[in-house]
């Protein structure tokens, strides 16, 4: 059984993620998974994988396979309080199940990097925090529609 739980899943804040996304060296080694459902409209992090939380029962094994070569996988929902952390934990456990304890290791908060281990983390404060900082930045956000967010 995985040593990961909701409490020790690593977190990453929006400025740190933006920095990683913009870094040419880190860019191919990171994946962002947006698990918002109907609330996905109005914008998303550029280059993210949209995997609605309602589809994770069957999409998680596919995500494990397609993201296997990434060093860091960041999950988020609107606030990253429920869906994002739950999806990250589900992904980490499925990765370990499919790839085995040694090859499927995911790092917990505070653990140092090891060969083959993948860092699975959660975007702190979710897309809401991202939107406040980078909503109108086309280098980092795609599909932003200010009108949808002004109503909230």
Which features would summarize this protein structure in a list?
5 helices; 17% strand; alpha/beta; 152 residues; 6-stranded parallel beta sheet; globular; two-stranded antiparallel ribbon
Explain this structure.
The structure is a single chain. 36% of the residues lie in helices and 17% in strands. The protein has five helices and eight strands, in the order βαβββαβαββαβα. The chain has helices at 14-22, 56-66, 83-103, 126-134, 146-150; strands at residues 11-12, 30-34, 44-45, 49-50, 72-76, 106-107, 118-123, 141-142. The strands form two sheets. Strands 1, 2, 4, 5, 6 and 7 form a six-stranded parallel beta sheet that branches. A two-stranded antiparallel sheet has the order 3-8. Helix 2 (56-66) packs across helix 3 (83-103). The longest helix has 21 residues, at 83-103. The mean pLDDT is 88.
Tell me, what's the shape? globular
- Average pLDDT score: 88
Number of strands: 8
Strand percent estimate: 15-25%
- Contiguous low-pLDDT stretches (5 residues minimum) are none
- Specify Rg, calculated over alpha carbons: 15 Å
Count every helix, treating DSSP H or I runs of 4 or more residues as helices.
5
Q: Largest sheet, described in full?
A: 6 strands, parallel
Structural class: alpha/beta
What is the H/E order? EHEEEHEHEEHEH
Report how far the terminal alpha carbons are from each other: 41 Å
**Percent of residues in helices:** 25-40%
């Amino acid at each position: 059984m995985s040593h990961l739980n909701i409490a020790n899943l690593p977190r990453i804040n929006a400025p740190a993620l933006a920095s990683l996304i913009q870094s040419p060296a880190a860019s191919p080694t990171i994946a962002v998974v947006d698990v918002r459902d109907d609330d996905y409209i109005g914008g998303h992090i550029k280059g993210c994988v949209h995997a609605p939380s309602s589809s994770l029962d069957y999409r998680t094994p596919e995500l494990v396979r397609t993201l296997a070569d990434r060093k860091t996988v960041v999950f988020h929902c609107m606030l990253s309080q429920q869906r994002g952390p739950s999806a990250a934990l589900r992904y980490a456990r499925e990765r370990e199940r499919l790839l085995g304890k040694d090859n499927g290791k995911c790092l917990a908060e505070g653990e140092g990097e090891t060969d083959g281990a993948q860092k699975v983390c959660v975007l702190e404060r979710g897309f809401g925090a991202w939107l406040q900082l980078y909503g109108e930045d086309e280098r980092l956000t795609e599909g932003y529609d200010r009108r949808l967010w002004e109503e909230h």
